[in-house]
Amino acid sequence: MAVSSSSCSLLLLFLVLAFAAAAPKDYLLGGKPDAWKVPSSESDSLNKWAETVRFRIADHLIFNYEAGKDSVLQVSKEDYVSCNTSHPIKKYNDGKTKVRFDHSGPYYYISGEKGHCEKGEKVIVLVVSQRSPGAAPVSPASAPSRGSGVEGPAVAPSPTSGADVLQGGGVLMAVGVVIAMLVF
Ligand SMILES: *[C@@H]1O[C@H](CO)[C@@H](O)[C@H](O)[C@H]1NC(C)=O
Description:
Helix content: 25-40%
Bound molecules: 2-acetamido-2-deoxy-beta-D-glucopyranose
Strand content: 15-25%
Distance between the termini: 17 Å
Strand order of the largest sheet: 2-8-7-4-5
Radius of gyration: 21 Å
């Protein structure tokens, strides 16, 4: 009995962790309120920030800027590279632009203000697809490697930390029991 209830708690623990990891998030561009502007230096580039974030489908990205003084254009890759503002896919100028990512892949944003994109007010956001519970074909035990592709870093920590927790069985039991009490 003790074994089955603790493995049930373990399952619950993983479900809770997986659910928390999968919940959509809102990201403030650049991690600060006034990032949508001509960067003061190249090292300040928004792409440096964007590369550190793992954007997923259903996440939001918020651009803050002064309405009327700037705008956000979603453009093709070609227009991103050449800073061509003449035919954006989408255009926003409300000052508090909140975009939702509804598919995976790269999203290209440039400023609609003349000359701003050329001075570095542009960002590429790479969105990865949301993992569904049945989507991982390899079991955690057989694939501890982290270098296994796009989904790697987010998948790898749970089996690893799970194994660590298993070795400290008492702590896991305590956590599992608490969660079981909360759920039932
Ligand atoms: C922007 O793209 C359009 C259509 O592709 C093209 O006609 C126009 O010349 C481009 N503008 C600039 C400034 O490159």
